Each structure stands twice: as C-alpha cells, then as structure tokens.
Here is the input.
Amino acid sequence: MLGNDLSGKDLLERLSIVLPTYNERENIIPLLGQLLTCTNDYELEILVVDDDSTDGTTQLVKDLSSRDRRIRLIHRVGRSGLASAIKEGLMVATGDFIAVMDSDGQHEPKAVINALNKLRKDNFNLVVGSRFLKGSEIRGLSYRRTGGSTLANSFARFSLPEVYSHLTDYMSGCFVIDLNSCDSLVRKVDVNGFKFLYELLSVSGGKISAGEVPLTFQPREYGISKLDMAILWDFMISLIHTFTFRFLPRRAISFALVGAFGVLVQLISTNIIMNVMNYKFEVALPFSVVIAATSNYLINNALTFRAHRLKSLGLLKGLLKFLLVASLPVLANVGLATTFYSVVVSNAVLAQMSGILVVFVWNYAASSRFVWNTP
Ligand code: GDD
Ligand code: MN
Here is the structure.
C-alpha cells in the first residue's frame, strides 16, 4: 500500500495552485470553493501564501487547511510583496504543474484550466492568462488602469527578448508553469514589487517557451487593490534594470533616480530662497542642501527602502544619520574633484562627474548599511 503510494502509480498527476493573499478574507472562501471543484483530472494542492493579513485571512485559511488537507497555508511574517509571495509558493509547491492566480476572484479558475490544457497540448514551459488577447474581456479595470497596463505592456515587450514579442500581457498575475523546466530561472527572479511574470521572462534570456490563453478579468468583489505608486515605481526600476542588462542592483538605480530628483529640488529651493525670499546665495545654499537631502531621505524611505521603512522616532533618527552620512562625502567630493582636475584631466565636467560618482557610491553603501540597516 505504502509502496504503491510512494511509487506514484495509480495516482493522479498533481496540480498546485499558488494563491498570494493580503487581506482577502471575503474573497478567499468563494474562490477556494470554486477551485476545489474545478477539476477531477488532477490531485490538487492549494498553497495560500499570506503576508500576515490584518483582516483575519490568515486564521481563516489556517482553519480551512485543518479541515481540508488539499489547502496549505504559508504564513509569512516580516516579509511582503506579491512577487516574493509567488516565488515562495512556487518553491514550496509539489505539483507536476503549478498555477498562479490572484486570490481576490478577478481571475477565473476556468482560465487556469484552459492554460494548463494549452501548456500540455502545445508543450509550453509557461502559459499566461492574458487580459489583452483576442477573446479576453476586461470587466474589472478602470479605463486608467487598462491604459496604464497597455502602456506598461508596450515597454515590457520592448525590453524583453524578441521571442516573447507575441505575448500580450507581461503584467498578468495568472499563469501556469511547468516548474521542472524553469526551476533554475525561477530561483533567479528578483522579487521586488508585483511583476513576477515580467521578471521571470526577463531573467530567462528567451529560454522559456511561452503561450497565452484569453482571460475574463472580473471586478473585485470585496476589499481594495494593493497596486500603488510604490509598485509602479518598482516596475519602472525593473524596466531600467532590464534595459541596463541587469548590471546595477535595482536598489542602486532607485537611489540614483531619487538622487537626481534631489538635484532638482536643490536648484529650485535655492532659486526660491534667493529670488522670492531675497537671501544671498551663501545663505540659501546650506538651506537648500538640507531641504534636498531631507526630501531624498523621505522618498528613499518610501520607495527605495520601503521594505525596511522607518517610522515615527526611527524616522527622525534615520534623518539625522542620513544627513551625517551625506555630509561626509561633501568634503571628499570637493577634494576628489580638485585632484582629478589638477592631476588627471583639466576638464571641469569630468572632474565633477568623478566626484559625484564617488559620492553616490558612498551615500548608497553607507545609508543602506547605517540608515536602513540593510547589507
Ligand atoms: N502575499 C501577498 N503579499 N499577496 C499580495 C500582496 C502582498 O504583498 N499584494 C497583493 N497581493 C495579492 C492580493 O491579495 C491579490 O490576491 C493579488 O495579490 C493581486 O493583488 P491586487 O491588489 O488585487 O492587484 P490588482 O488587481 O490591482 O492588479 C492586477 O493587475 C496587475 C497588473 O496590472 C493583478 O492581476 C496583478 O496580479 C497584476 O500584476
Ligand atoms: Mn485584484
């Protein structure tokens, strides 16, 4: 009996379904009900990856999983993010095939089964449920979001290997994958933000064979979408990361963009302090430097380092540390630029660029380490 079970003979093939959840208490019950009855052809394993929801989703799924062994809960504390939840689910899943879908009811179980059938019939490594294919329908997205997704898809298509140009929805959260054929690539996926699928295609260098099936994207019944500005920012960073051959760390790209914005803030502040408030340059400069550094700090805290975001008193302490970290290289910057100018080449722009580069590397490394306590 045991031998028979372990040999796997006479058993159905296994389908794992990964459901990332964050505050989906009302949505998860009807979805689980639909999923548990959606197929007789596979033995199901449903992996709910929950990031310590605050609305009771975690306990609810725990209770359900104690009653039905096909349901398993992965309860994550201190980690978060859709892409990282998906990756974790994929790494834990034991199925021969694995489906990933939203847990708010916007993706239909039917689409997952269609995707699975297509994957098997046409021997794909991956099949995506697309919102933009012929036969798809979008019922649950505002015009603005639909436009945004279309635009994001165009950028994504442009940045990804040519072999994926036939795909229509790189942003989809619904897909079926034959993990055995892509395991080493899934391991490499950088899990910032929402876009697991885009990242997977991006790291694959064209090695994954991918197809699509149409999807009807339903409206959300309960709760709200978790897609926000920070997630859009992550996606922009992802695009730049892909365009620059994945050479620079994403966090460094984000830090650099925030820094560039800080330059603007400084120029504008100086201008206002001098021309509107009528102070001299020497007075205006130190103020605007502090204003720019503070705005850099707050934006980095909200975007670049939001996984380690500082709050209340920690936020204030962090600001002081950030100002300290940022003030040290000012001297180095001046020193280096002067030396570069006199010793290497007498080109003011190049000399300043070398100074800025050193300041950037220092600020990034030191504030990662000392302000946000990350390696
Ligand atoms: N575990 C976990 N952790 N789950 C999360 C997190 C998180 O930090 N953030 C979101 N989720 C879960 C939600 O509970 C939901 O089941 C699913 O991920 C999608 O999140 P929504 O907040 O419903 O996203 P959406 O409907 O606005 O976005 C849709 O379109 C995006 C592309 O435009 C989804 O289909 C996304 O998957 C898709 O990338
Ligand atoms: Mn949704």
About this structure: The chain is about 55% helix and 10% strand. The chain has a mean pLDDT of 91. The chain has two domains: 14-224, 250-370. The radius of gyration is 25 Å.
